[in-house]
């Protein structure tokens, strides 16, 4: 079952993000990987800044999360994670398909360029990597990330006509 997450779910969201983000260890730039990957304070700031999380439940436990953030003429998919022991069960795909139905706007997704599995997942679901120039423009316009992260990231969209 997919449902909107509420304040009560913040601890579960935090746990899922930090469990799943272990996949980045040794893959993304060393100075960008932290433990925990996202602090509880950072998560709460994201929520206060408009990231609405949706959770995928199995046996009344959230095992996957994906955020949607409205940014003017686009919607951003943010913080898409599935517990490591639940990967490859279609949970991420179901969450993404559901979130796509919630907006008529072009969707943008930012991820690490070295996270080949994430890029492949989004491409499998109809998203395309934007050009280097578009990536830099979009990351600076819609996200707040350091310059080093811009250089080691990609942006994908489901609407290249928007770019």
Automatic annotation (TrEMBL):
GO molecular function: acyltransferase activity, transferring groups other than amino-acyl groups
Coiled coil: none
Origin superkingdom: Bacteria
Residue spans crossing the bilayer: none
Alphabetical UniProt keywords: Transferase
Domain N-acetyltransferase: 1-161
InterPro entries: Acyl_CoA_acyltransferase (IPR016181), GNAT_dom (IPR000182)
UniProt-listed Pfam families: Acetyltransf_10
UniProt-recorded name of the protein: GNAT family acetyltransferase
Organism: Paenibacillus antarcticus
């Amino acid at each position: 079952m997919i449902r909107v997450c509420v304040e009560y779910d913040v601890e579960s969201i935090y746990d899922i993000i930090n469990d799943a983000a272990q996949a980045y260890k040794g893959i993304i730039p060393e100075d960008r990987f932290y433990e925990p990957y996202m602090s509880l304070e950072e998560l709460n700031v994201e929520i206060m800044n408009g990231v609405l999380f949706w959770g995928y439940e199995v046996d009344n436990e959230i095992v996957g999360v994906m955020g949607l953030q409205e940014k003017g003429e686009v919607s951003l998919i943010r913080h898409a994670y599935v517990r490591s022991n639940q990967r490859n069960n279609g949970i991420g795909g179901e969450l993404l398909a559901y979130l796509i139905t919630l907006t008529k706007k072009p969707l943008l997704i930012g991820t690490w360029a070295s996270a080949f599995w994430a890029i492949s997942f989004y491409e499998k679901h109809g998203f395309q990597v934007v050009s280097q120039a578009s990536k830099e423009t979009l990351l600076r316009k819609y996200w707040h990330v350091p310059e080093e992260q811009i250089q080691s990231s990609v942006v994908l969209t489901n609407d290249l006509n928007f770019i």
